[in-house]
Automatic annotation (TrEMBL), chains A, B:
Similarity comment: Belongs to the FAD-binding oxidoreductase/transferase type 4 family.
UniProt cofactor(s): FAD
UniProtKB keywords: FAD, Flavoprotein, Oxidoreductase
Name of the featured protein: FAD linked oxidase, C-terminal domain protein
Entry keyword annotation includes Ribosomal protein: no
Pfam families: FAD-oxidase_C, FAD_binding_4
Taxonomy, superkingdom: Bacteria
InterPro entries: FAD-bd_oxidored_4_C, FAD-bd_PCMH, FAD-bd_PCMH-like_sf, FAD-bd_PCMH_sub1, FAD-bd_PCMH_sub2, FAD-linked_Oxase-like_C, FAD-oxidored/transferase_4, Oxid_FAD_bind_N
Protein species of origin: Moraxella catarrhalis (Branhamella catarrhalis)
UniProt domain FAD-binding PCMH-type: residue ranges: 38-217
């Protein structure tokens, strides 16, 4: 017997048109995100269509003490959108309308379930640009992006998802509907709850709509891929190019990542030389002056021996081809059962930090392959440890847990973040104190109690 | 007998070097900001030098039930930093050090009491730029800027104070020291309390330090002042110039403001023609292409009859002279005992909104002069009603209270903000429900109870 039978019955009575699925295929499909470390256990999936329906659902869930887990595009990497304790999952798949467009404000209202790529395409059709972009933008939903404050490849120029959100409609854990900030650039009328819900991973309430800032379309985006002799050089290049140009991206990856991407047939090598590290940088080549500036920095850095070799895109086709080097990494290495970390430190600490980590892993686990890549312009590194063929998945993950402690000790040493853009969910929950103090976590719990006094909303995520 | 004698005695015992002033001149000086509607009543002013001292003070204040009012540069316009009930004032004047500079991160740590202009000068000396600027930057302190999320004249390009804050050290109302976000661009580890303290007007705790993002210095800033025939034209110009250029400012003011500024001898008329409205726009003229673009838009708008006349700065001196037209307004009209409003609506609603307000005021108060100016590129208007000579100050303010209700009804009609960048403090507290719902205010009170359970920290500000 479904322990939430009475809740589901009450839902059907109150919202007779609400779609409710309880079959195993559905609960397994909607009950999980991209993380693989947890078994899904979900009693039902429900598909509201309006903010008001979400409010009714949350109020009934409070009455029946039924925990609710939000489900967006299910592309999360920290298990914030996984039901493991027989919760009821609330999917935003049917709240997927793009609403009013405010041309003079360059702003559009979207439902939480709108796919990131749909918003990008909408913006493009208006002659504008939605600036948040990452590998899963074809599946991820705006509500999930907001709940994890998603970052991606353009943060250096446009900021995080947080920076695009001019207004937010949320249903709190008590079922109250809050319409926050109304799209204004300036509004100094008390606490800005918008920013509390952004990045809260659905633990304070559910985001149902957002007012999104759009940007002007970038002009003639141009990428360079550079081979770099040592990691310090990556940081120097960031400073040099960052000083001369307004960068729209500054990514890095290592030779191992390039080898795997090429072996998987995603693209070809950028040039004949090999290098321990690569940088992909991008800028708007609005005119020849800018191109000359970029070439000048390139030549100077090459003279200084920082760059082994380099290539610059001459067309959109070449730009897209160069980006494949970076954007195919995640998909390519997924075949090697990677143990993923998503960490950040100040740029000032990057070189020392990477050196420490490489030392730790090679000293303790000489048979592990480490694949480094990341949004280095934001101090954000994806550290991926690839499973050696001779280890089982369980043996490998067990060893990685130990590596994890070393890695997070090092993150803490440099006062960094154990989760730069993937959130905490369940996978990073045991490590939260490496970045946040116990006092902060206690305040978080008290804040959750304000918005969700019965602990109905995504319980057991971020903290217990 | 000072009712807070025991508290002050305990302070002296615990922090023997702490400066405490109780003389009337000091309490009157530090006990108020720029607002004039409240009588100052303050028992003592204390001057901590470190975050740890602030923590000790707050803990003792909790023990003794002594309310504390923060005091920064005292330039606030909403009475958030005024002691009226015999509170003890905590001044940040002695916490005024500029700390570590992180070159690779373009970031600097500053104490709360650092003057905005000192930070601007520090940035300039590093070849960088602190982007928040407004009329009171020579006196205002960073802690106060953060607590009110100060805006100013460059928001259209660089955002609010909120957008410059990469890390924050705060002492909560319980006396806990929180060090938030550590300067990282990406950090998805639970609730971002930084954004809760920004704009909280010192009601949740006291900001003691901040990590501030610096920008690259702008290149060849160039201003245009344009005379505009009707308000709709201002919005059209914003769209046209905003599409062609990356604007660093887009301000507007009316003929009355220009008349007063010129009569006061601050500068001369920008050109011979007169116009009901003026726009001051600014951009980086990085090369001739950009200048030509700007001139092209100007010519097109002039042909369409939107622009009466215009002038463009050809040097830094001319740039500064044109800015005087806008920046002298506030000081100039202060001689006319203005009743100030600081409101914002979506740019999409601006023209209708202004038309409604003008209709209301001229219909009901034909003898009132209205001076309009503001950061129109952010939807932010400063509506100033000037006192007719035949009314006493009290008669005038009483009438203004009634106008206020009409104005705020109109703000509410367009779902705008009754305080765009000045905060709520005490002056806007009675009107908070025009922008925030009672449910939101109830949540605010509950959040305050989490960080300040004894109501020690700046009580009676924002809400009761």
């Amino acid at each position: 017997m479904n322990p939430h039978h009475a809740f589901l019955q009450a839902l059907s009575n109150t919202l007779p048109t609400l779609s409710i699925k309880t079959d195993t295929e559905s609960t397994q499909h909607w009950g999980r995100d991209w993380t693989v470390h947890f078994d899904t256990h979900c009693q039902a999936v429900i598909f509201p269509k309006t903010t008001e329906e979400v409010s009714v659902i949350v109020k009934l869930a409070n009455e029946h003490q039924t925990p609710l887990v939000p489900s967006g595009g299910r592309t999360g990497l920290s298990a914030a959108a996984v039901a493991t304790k027989g919760e009821v999952v609330i999917s935003f798949d049917k709240m997927n309308q793009i609403g009013q467009f405010y041309e003079a404000d360059r702003m559009v209202e979207v439902d939480a379930g709108v796919i990131t790529q749909s918003l990008q395409e909408f913006a493009k059709n208006q002659g504008l640009y939605y600036a948040v972009d990452f590998a899963s933008s074809g599946s991820s939903q705006i509500g999930g992006n907001i709940s994890t404050n998603a970052g991606g490849i353009k943060v250096i120029r446009y900021g995080m998802t947080r920076d695009q959100i001019l207004g937010l409609t949320v249903v709190t854990g008590k079922g109250d509907i809050l319409t926050l900030n109304g799209g204004m650039l300036k509004n100094a009328t008390g606490y800005d709850f918008r920013h509390l819900f952004i990045g809260a991973e659905g633990t304070l309430g559910f985001i149902t709509k957002a007012l999104i800032k759009l940007e002007k379309q970038p002009i003639n985006l141009t990428a360079m891929v550079l081979g770099v002799t040592e990691f310090n050089g990556v940081v120097t290049l960031l400073a040099q190019f960052g000083q001369a140009l307004t960068l729209t991206a500054f990514e890095f990856f290592d030779q191992l990542a390039v080898d795997k991407v090429i072996a998987a047939g995603h693209t070809k090598a950028p040039f004949e030389s090999q290098a321990p590290f690569y940088v992909l940088l991008e800028f708007e080549a609005i005119n020849d002056d800018v191109l000359n500036l970029a070439m000048g920095v390139f030549e100077q850095c090459a003279e200084e021996g920082l760059i082994v070799d380099g290539v610059m895109s001459q067309s959109i086709g070449q730009l897209q081809e160069l980006w494949k080097l970076r954007e195919s990494i995640s998909e390519t290495i997924s075949a090697f059962t990677p143990y993923k970390n998503d960490i950040s430190v100040l740029i000032s600490h990057l070189a020392d930090f990477i050196s420490d980590i490489e030392h730790i892993v090679t000293a303790n686990y000489p048979d592990f392959e480490i694949c480094w890549f990341g949004h280095i312009g934001d101090g954000n590194l994806h550290l991926n440890i690839l499973k050696p063929a001779n280890l089982t998945k369980d043996e490998f993950f067990e060893k990685c847990q130990t590596v994890n402690t070393y890695v997070f000790d090092t993150v803490q040493k440099y006062q960094g973040s154990i989760s730069a853009e993937h959130g905490v969910g369940m996978t990073k929950k045991p490590y939260l104190t490496y970045t946040r103090t116990q006092t902060e976590i206690d305040y978080m719990k008290a804040i959750k109690a304000v918005f969700d006094p019965n602990g109905i909303i995504n319980p057991g995520k971020i903290f217990d």
